[in-house]
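Chapter summary example.
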Amino acid sequence: MIYRHIATSERAFVQQLAVAYVNHGYWYYVTGTIPPHKDAIKVDDKLLARYDVAISKWAKARRKRQGLANVQYLRHGHFFVLIATRGLHPFFEQEGDNVKDVRREPIRFAGYSIGYRMGVDRKWHPSVRIHPVEYNGLKSFYLDLATRSSIEHLLREFRRIPFEPYAAVRRQLLNVLRAVNRARKAAGFELLPVSALRLRRRAVKAFDQGEEDTLQRAALASGIGLSDSGCKLSLRALAVGIPQEDGATPRGLPRCSA
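The structure predicted for these 258 residues follows.
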């Protein structure tokens, strides 16, 4: 099994985090930013090994039945999140007070606020919305344009909004549109139609298949299996061109055996 964790884009990062992780009970998290001078792949390998993240779904299911927590790791660029389920795990001991609860403190990333909230149906759901700071700036920008721009220019600007229309984001964007139309109506200008907004979310591919293909080719070329996590991490080093020496990987992990 290859553990894929490098999101293809900001949009993919948000989708994977909210839909695949938060939605399935991963609520306890720490975030971090890898300094530009550090090798992100080395940091990935260190964290994956430290918290035994790269295990199979069957191993995760066994841990859950035993009351133990599972941890996921996700990165885009130099920003990463480690996020865990409820239960016992070294993650909680080592991270201590740094661990936050997404139900109380949403994750802020790329202008989004990603949390877990109770909806109008009285059920809990992942919540993806534009962060209040970004939202207020966005609203101010469009209100400034409302009575100073042609409808054609405004339509172009609305189409440039970069946020994916999750349910909460849709409500925010509709509020912005209504505010703009109130201002235009008071000035006697033509109103913008709802079609100015993109209100259907586009699902994206969370991970690049190329990374897994590279590792699989490296395994086949070397006659190496992918059964244990140390081997998987060693193969990641091999895939990016770092040789194994003296029976160990450059990360200090055990050498893979054929």
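To summarize the output: Confidence is low (pLDDT under 50) at residues 224-258.
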